[in-house]
């Protein structure tokens, strides 16, 4: 199940035999959603941990240098300093895991982080995000340009047509080319699971992406009608676990799209802990793609410290 060597054939005949037990997956998802969350100081601790997994994202058509600069500042200082001091966490170096922008904004993000003396990596979406419906040559060039501009992580989108028509070897070859174009940059492969048709296809695409050399597999672009859901996550996480058992290689996981509340983030951390264990609860192996999530986490931390909910002017950087 490792990448093939040049001149050897890739045997993917087993892929057609894979089936996902959908009722069992849905039952497991209901268990996660029904579970009570942690409270008080335990909640505050888990929320601060969640901050360190966030890829703070802006993917808007009206992005400019000024709001990229603001995003990078917020990534370096995600929680107000006085709130961290109240929790005795002001000297722990809490930042988000990365900032994520469009390829044309990578230079802006790199510059803003340098000005802020911050070493958070810049991630860039690429390969015709979000639809992935541009020529392969164009998609590969987009990766190379983003890396040249300073992106250390590339979030690529797959061609969903290859999944829906069962062209697994073509999908493998395409992702291998993405891997090569990334060079030393980390490759995060977006499956766009809401457009793959079935949970069985989600498992198959996850395995192909990992076999082709992805450092992370990611649920969604955030632009689909259906984005990160627990059933999809369970299937992807168990694919990651199967891949680890068979190869010894740890692949990261990134849910994205629709994760907006602090309560949501706690449920995702709980799921990772239960399905993959504590060793996956670090930024090298788990990320959350989000833009609005950090604001709600900071509000909940504010409430924990002060006993009241923040007014808009209390957290202006949100």
TrEMBL record:
EC number: 4.1.2.4
Protein name in the entry: Deoxyribose-phosphate aldolase
Alphabetically ordered keywords of this record: Cytoplasm, Lyase, Nucleus, Schiff base
Compartments in which it is found: Cytoplasmic granule; Nucleus
Enzymatic reactions: 2-deoxy-D-ribose 5-phosphate = D-glyceraldehyde 3-phosphate + acetaldehyde
Keyword Nucleus: yes
Positions of the catalytic residues: 218 (schiff-base intermediate with acetaldehyde), 254 (proton donor/acceptor)
Annotated Gene3D superfamilies: Aldolase class I
Protein purpose: Catalyzes a reversible aldol reaction between acetaldehyde and D-glyceraldehyde 3-phosphate to generate 2-deoxy-D-ribose 5-phosphate. Participates in stress granule (SG) assembly. May allow ATP production from extracellular deoxyinosine in conditions of energy deprivation.
GO cellular component assignments: cytoplasm; nucleus
SMART domains: DeoC
Pathway(s) the chain acts in: Carbohydrate degradation; 2-deoxy-D-ribose 1-phosphate degradation; D-glyceraldehyde 3-phosphate and acetaldehyde from 2-deoxy-alpha-D-ribose 1-phosphate: step 2/2
One Gene Ontology biological process: deoxyribose phosphate catabolic process
Subunit architecture: Interacts with YBX1.
Database matches in CDD domains: DeoC
Family designation: Belongs to the DeoC/FbaB aldolase family. DeoC type 2 subfamily.
GO molecular function annotations of the record: deoxyribose-phosphate aldolase activity
